[in-house]
């Protein structure tokens, strides 16, 4: 590994540019996470169970594409504009176009076979191929922007702020645009808004990708692996999964994403059908930006003082207990529900904002053990884990809607269905966050002391190499 000395130093331009990359990703990812199932069930009219099957099948494809893309990033010769930035340039148009294609209403009256083929082709094209080809290089790029752990922690925070900005824009605006009240006061979907919204988000994503490409600089250069020395994919994955830290972080990521995406998937139904107030969901999602901005100055301070693992355990356990309490209380007022959820969000949001710094610690721990870095490959494995969590949440969310008897084409759900929807949404999130806390507490090995020891070892190695 070598670091360029002729480039400009790391600064606010890199942070802002890297943040814009995640905003671009999440204009598509968050929209799909929160509203693609709504589009499939209420516009195309397919069953939630079929949607769940699509999400799970696509994750099987991701097992190959995510890890494969990571190997490609680690192995191919860098382009003139960098190993990672070059992929942002190549893929920004294909990924946004693929996202737009998923939300076309022209097939609403087609046969179930045609709809199924359309769903599988467009979703896998976007999520498993195009999104993978830009997200894996983008995530791996943090290690190339700076070798300084503090800079990388800063990038993690800015990335999380970017994700929340995109989430706030999407989840505050979309419910107000796609839902409207009918003559009986029930919330129905405005089907024609989906392709329009998807088109606007696609254009915004391209602009954000261009800013990310222009504003970031790759300073740390890693030579591509020699083909003769490159391991088979099987051996690479076996080596990665020999890391207890990586296994634990993957498990925690699966349940973290499960909790957040389950909320994103089911909240659209909960607020529309149970509370009959989509506007309250817009308010709640707007408040999440306040949570992110309020936490951002303290993430690095708290993690440095008490340790990332230690503080994340407390945070996720707190959020889990809040949602278990909501399940027990059976809240009827949407604004009371919003208020309690807002307080609970501080716990899991802390871990969500720090998680990319957790990944950097895992990369360092791997380097300590193996004397080499496989940033792209490890990030590919981790990205697959997050997508698996997304699939489990979307898939089980879809199966749960079917299991409780949710009628996709009905404007009004029965009281039994609405109460079951409330239970699944609250207890599902609460269980997920409590499991994250237990994984971090009992399985994840990188305590504050261990991280400091790894930093010292790597620093000594680099000093001796010079």
Automatic annotation (TrEMBL):
GO MF entries: symporter activity
A single GO BP: sodium ion transport
InterPro entries registered for this protein in UniProt: MFS_2, MFS_trans_sf, Na/Gal_symport
Superkingdom of the organism of origin: Bacteria
Statement: the UniProt record of this protein carries the keyword Metal-binding: no
Pfam families hit by this protein: MFS_2
Gene Ontology CC terms, in alphabetical order: plasma membrane
Bilayer-crossing regions: 27-57, 87-105, 117-140, 161-181, 193-215, 236-263, 283-304, 311-331, 337-359, 388-407, 427-446
Stretch forming the signal peptide: none
Sorted UniProt keywords: Membrane, Transmembrane, Transmembrane helix
Name of the featured protein: MFS transporter
Species per Swiss-Prot/TrEMBL record: Candidatus Scybalomonas excrementavium
Lineage: Bacteria, Bacillati, Bacillota, Clostridia, Lachnospirales
């Amino acid at each position: 590994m070598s670091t360029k000395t002729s480039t400009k130093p790391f600064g606010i331009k890199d942070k802002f540019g890297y943040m814009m990359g995640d905003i671009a990703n999440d204009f598509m990812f968050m929209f799909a996470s929160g509203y693609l199932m709504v589009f499939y069930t209420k516009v195309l009219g397919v069953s939630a169970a079929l949607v769940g099957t699509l999400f799970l099948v696509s994750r099987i494809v991701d097992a190959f594409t995510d890890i494969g893309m990571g190997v490609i990033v680690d192995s191919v010769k860098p382009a003139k504009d960098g190993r990672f930035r070059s992929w942002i340039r190549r893929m920004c148009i294909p990924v946004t176009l693929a996202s737009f294609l998923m939300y076309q209403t022209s097939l609403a009256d087609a046969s179930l076979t045609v709809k199924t083929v359309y769903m599988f082709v467009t979703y896998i094209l976007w999520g498993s191929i195009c999104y993978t080809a830009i997200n894996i290089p983008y995530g791996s790029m943090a290690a190339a922007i700076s070798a300084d752990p503090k800079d990388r922690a800063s990038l993690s925070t800015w990335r999380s702020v970017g994700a929340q900005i995109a989430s706030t824009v999407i989840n505050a605006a979309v419910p107000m645009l796609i839902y409207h009240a009918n003559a009986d006061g029930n919330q129905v979907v405005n089907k024609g808004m989906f392709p329009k919204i998807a088109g606007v988000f696609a254009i915004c994503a391209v602009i954000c990708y261009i800013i990310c490409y222009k504003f970031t600089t790759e300073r740390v250069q890693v030579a591509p692996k020699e083909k003769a020395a490159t391991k088979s994919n099987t051996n690479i994955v076996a080596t990665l999964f020999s890391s207890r830290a990586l296994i634990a972080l993957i498990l925690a990521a699966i349940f973290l994403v499960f909790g957040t995406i389950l909320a994103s998937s089911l909240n659209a139904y909960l607020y529309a059908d149970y509370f009959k107030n989509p506007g309250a969901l817009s308010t709640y999602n707007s408040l999440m930006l306040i949570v992110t901005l309020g936490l951002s100055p303290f993430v690095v301070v708290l993690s440095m003082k008490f340790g990332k693992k230690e503080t994340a355990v407390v945070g996720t356990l707190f959020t889990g207990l809040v949602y278990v309490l909501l399940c027990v209380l059976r809240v009827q007022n949407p604004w009371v529900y919003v208020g309690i959820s807002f307080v609970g969000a501080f716990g899991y949001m802390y871990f969500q904002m720090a998680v990319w710094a957790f990944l950097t610690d895992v990369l360092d721990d791997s380097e300590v053990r193996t004397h080499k870095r496989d940033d792209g490959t490890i990030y590919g494995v981790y990205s697959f884990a997050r997508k698996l969590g997304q699939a489990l949440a979307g898939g089980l969310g879809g199966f749960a809607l079917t299991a409780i008897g949710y009628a996709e084409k009905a404007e009004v759900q029965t009281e039994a269905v609405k109460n079951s929807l409330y239970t699944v949404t609250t207890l599902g999130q609460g269980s997920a966050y409590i499991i994250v806390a237990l994984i971090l507490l009992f399985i994840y090995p990188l305590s504050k002391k261990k991280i400091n020891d790894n930093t010292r070892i790597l620093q000594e190695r680099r000093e001796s190499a010079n």
